[in-house]
User: Which sequence fits this backbone?
């Protein structure tokens, strides 16, 4: 067996094919549903947005496996990828506070985008990642407090904000644990 064959098998392993195939199947579901019901009406831009979001999720998991491994760093990267996906998806679908067009909702997406960019800039070093994830976890309820001030009369879904803050906090704890293992 040649070295090229061995490398290609590593790249096209069953887990990778299953993961990307599952994301592709999720993207295909609305197109299939549109054939059977008028209640699902996606535009081409909806498919592009979902495709970008699902690609970001898959890429996050790929990075978690490649650079994080099976330890705390990899788990933290996977949790952060899932939390980022869910944050942007839920925020775009219905918005966390009020409707999806409210200004404060842009803050939730900005937290995720800024966190992703800074994470890439520091090359996912656990010593810094724990602080980035902690800042995003803290930013969730702070945006809720900001909404009380910016949007009087709107209800803040504190339960949802706490759940998302918990996801980001779990990622921060994983990175903290990975930092302690590399530092000690």
Assistant:
């Amino acid at each position: 067996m040649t070295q090229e064959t061995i490398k290609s098998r590593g790249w096209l392993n069953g887990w990778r094919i299953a993961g990307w195939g599952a994301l592709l199947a999720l993207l295909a579901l609305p197109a299939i549903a549109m054939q059977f019901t008028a209640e699902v009406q996606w535009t081409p831009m909806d498919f592009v947005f979902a495709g970008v979001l699902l690609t970001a999720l898959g890429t996050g998991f790929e990075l978690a496996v490649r650079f994080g491994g099976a330890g705390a760093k990899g788990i933290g990267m996977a949790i952060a990828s899932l939390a980022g996906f869910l944050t942007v998806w839920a925020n775009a679908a219905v918005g966390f506070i009020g409707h999806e067009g409210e200004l404060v909702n842009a803050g939730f997406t900005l937290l995720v985008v800024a966190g992703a960019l800074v994470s890439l800039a520091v090359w996912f070093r656990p010593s810094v990642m724990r602080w980035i994830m902690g800042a995003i976890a803290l930013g969730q309820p702070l945006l809720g407090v900001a909404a009380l001030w910016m949007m009087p009369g709107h209800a803040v879904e504190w339960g949802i904000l706490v759940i998302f803050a918990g996801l980001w906090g779990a990622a921060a704890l994983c990175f903290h644990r990975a930092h302690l293992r590399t530092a000690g």
